[in-house]
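Hey, can you fold this one?
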Amino acid sequence: MTTIIKQLKAWEILDSRGRPTVKARCELESRAVGIVSVPSGASTGAAEAHELRDNDPARYRGLGCRKAVANINGEINTALAGRLLASQQELDTILIELDATANKSRLGANAILAVSLAFARAVSQERQYPLYQHFADMQELPLRTLPRPTINLFSGGKHAGGQVDIQDVLLVPAAAQTMDEALAVTFAVYQSASELTFKKYGTRSLTADEGGLAPPFPDTETMLADAVETIEQAGYVAGKDVMLAIDVASSHFYQDKLYHLDHEQLSSAAMIERLGNWLSRYPLVSIEDGLAEDDWNNWPDLYARIGSQTLVLGDDFLCTNPGRIQRAIANQAANALLLKVNQIGTLSEAAQSCQLARSANWRVTISARSGETEDNWLADLAVGWAGDQIKIGSITHGERLAKYNRLLEIEADTHLPLIAWPTDGSQNNHS
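Sure. Predicted structure:
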């Protein structure tokens, strides 16, 4: 593949929280065009690539992205327009070298990622290939399955104003054979949850950043118990038809080497035991960020305690960063990667992170962010990169549904099966 960029153009748009983000257009000499919007996170890891914001308190409370947009329209366009490029890797290498910082803070990871993705979409148009096929070809992967969705049911933490400490309880429609069936099952459970929360807490179906319901749970235990109850009220068997996953997001309640959870102060060892207790009582097939991102010494103990029964999934802990992933592999600290492309800033680096995880026989969950747009490229990425799971959010809000509806479209076009669950030969049975 060789191609020439004719022009790059960008502008500021708003994400699903009403905050600014970046949209970019890449036009090739062949007249193929790729237009992409990039997301933004709320629960962000300290090691994430740096989003460039304007820091003008008089406009969007400093969150504007005009500087990032100007960098695309100016310096990045000047460097790339008219340039013959042989691959996505070559483009991304130029962007990284042009920025010349460790965390992409000069040009902005939001600017760099927008160009990286827009170029990929333009090249897929030039090749007249679906975007998912182009992504698969980038990693020389066959198209075999669709990722199984993990779908927000209840939210807390930074996604929902902190009314409960942990961030999300998610549904995993484990018995579903198709994406269509998985979403139908989720709809039934979500409606059951809406009815339960209204009856139990008097709350209407008001939702958090990613569409999860957010009633005033008194503690995490109640949140998990209510999730199981809603599954059963919808007519399914918890632990067989539908499993649960949790995003603990422990970094956000970790202070002075203690976990401030449910009005208690827990040591790392006590936090591990708490997670193990939840695992023994609830059908949890994935536990994300069970410990804080900097609690490195205790992640191997967490993995030793629960790793044979569930996915020990790293988000803030790993930040889709090849260096952190390599360290976690060496330390036997996890067995799954939550892959967020904007945590690292280019497609090529995200592909490297994905390949590293695969080399250790880890599972990979392709994830959206709390601040999303109506763009659906994430669905194509999860299919093309053979994601085991995809984490988009709930089945409400248009920016979430854009990705689910794209998965349904890909399913209709390709007839790819939904990946089997569990994928690692282990299962935490609850019935």
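The two ends are 52 Å apart (CA to CA). Let me know if you want another pass with a different chain boundary.
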